[in-house]
Specification:
Blueprint lengths: L4 E5 L8 H15 L3 E7 L11 E5 L9 H16 L4 E3 L8 E4 L3 H5 L7 H16 L2 E4 L2 H11 L23 H10 L7 E7 L8 H7 L6 E7 L9 E5 L4 H7 L2 E4 L8 H8 L4 E4 L13 E4 L4 H9 L18 H17 L1
Parallel strand pairs: 1-2, 1-4, 2-3, 4-5, 5-6, 7-8, 7-10, 8-9, 10-11, 11-12
Length: about 350
């Protein structure tokens, strides 16, 4: 039997995307089903979408970064005990959640860096404790599920892959005329093949340098960078800045492209496909597991010529749709799964 009050743990609350936005979607859906979400977070700043829920905030501003997870978990343990909350869903690193979403592992991420820091060792050790405590761990892809087993020794029985939900109402395919208007409004070429590179920041991790090198000399291709403008660009690229309406940006492009060295899922791939725009992705990106081969061309990061060959042979893109996705991406489906896991965990 699941208690009516369910703890929701996250680093912060925000509507832009990522785990924070994911948490808000879960909170809203649970409330609509009659449950009472109680939110535990850090350094909370009020936002309208959660103003009607109980929010308990922990100040971590004075805590060293390497010790923040440990401090927050100690605080969380006491708060959960005081509130009598027995079921908890975590969207960030902590040692008190029954169900812990895993959008990537620190060991996996750090393995792509040349130099390792004391912070990496502390964080990875804390992850060990968090993963061992959780009854169920929900990686964002099978790729991350394999990391949990190989890098952390987690029993596969605890691992339940949970591909991220997406709003089908928000990400839709525009009619052709509206697509052309979006393209013109963003200042994109009408006579070139436009590749959208969606990256708020961390462009190097997402492969911008590799992509720019691969499109050198291709006068028929234009790379549109959505996010923080790079310091320098070649003539084949254009910076369109941060986009509050990503559906418009996806629809304006012919393809969406990423060459990330570490991308546990890559929600932009699914969003792009829902907007009718096919994707070109490094084969290690998690969302390639759920996108059809007709909608997704993949390449090996260790073979840049493979990407260049794909770009040289690009044909006019076909419009994609939800039929190109191999999972139920509704928030309702994921909440059903969470409630089932909480029920199983409470009866164990």
């Amino acid at each position: 039997m699941i208690q009516n009050e369910i703890g929701i743990v996250c680093n912060r609350l925000a509507c832009g995307g990522g785990m924070e936005s994911h948490a808000i979607s879960i909170v809203t859906t649970l409330a609509n089903l009659g449950y009472t979400p109680v939110i535990f977070t850090k350094n909370h700043k009020p936002i309208a979408s959660v103003q009607n829920y109980e929010i308990i905030s922990c100040s971590t501003k004075m805590i060293p970064r390497a010790l923040e997870d440990l401090y927050f978990s100690h605080w969380l343990k006491n708060k959960l005990k005081n509130r009598g909350i027995q079921s908890c869903i975590g969207f960030c690193r902590n040692t008190e959640s029954d169900i812990l979403f895993c959008g990537g592992t620190h060991r996996g991420f750090a393995s792509h860096r040349k130099h390792h820091l004391v912070y990496d060792a502390i964080t990875s050790s804390f992850e060990d404790a968090a993963f061992q405590h959780a009854k169920f761990i929900l990686p964002a892809s099978n790729f991350i599920g394999q990391e949990l087993q190989s890098l952390y020794g987690i029993n596969r029985k605890k691992i339940v892959t949970a591909y991220p939900p997406v709003s089908e109402d928000k990400f839709t395919c525009f009619p052709n005329q509206q697509r052309l208007e979006a393209r013109a409004d963003l200042g994109l070429s009408l006579d070139k093949t436009v590749l959208l590179f969606p990256s708020a920041s961390g462009h190097e991790r997402k492969g911008l340098s590799l992509i720019l090198k691969c499109i050198e000399g291709m006068e028929n291709i234009e790379l549109a960078i959505a996010g923080k403008p790079p310091r320098s660009l070649n003539s084949s690229a254009i910076a369109i800045g941060y986009q509050t309406d990503m559906a418009k940006a996806y629809n304006a492009a012919d393809y969406t492209i990423l060459a990330s060295c570490y991308e546990p899922f890559g929600l932009v791939g699914v969003e792009s496909v829902l907007c009718g725009t096919p994707v070109i992705l490094a084969q290690n990106i998690g969302c390639t597991e759920v996108i059809s081969s007709e909608a997704c061309q993949t390449f090996d990061l260790d073979n840049p010529q493979q990407l260049r060959s794909i770009l040289l042979e690009l044909k006019p893109s076909r419009r994609t749709s939800k039929d190109d996705l191999a999972y139920d991406f509704s928030i309702q489906k994921q909440v059903e799964m969470l409630l089932s896991l909480l029920s199983n965990g409470s009866s164990a």
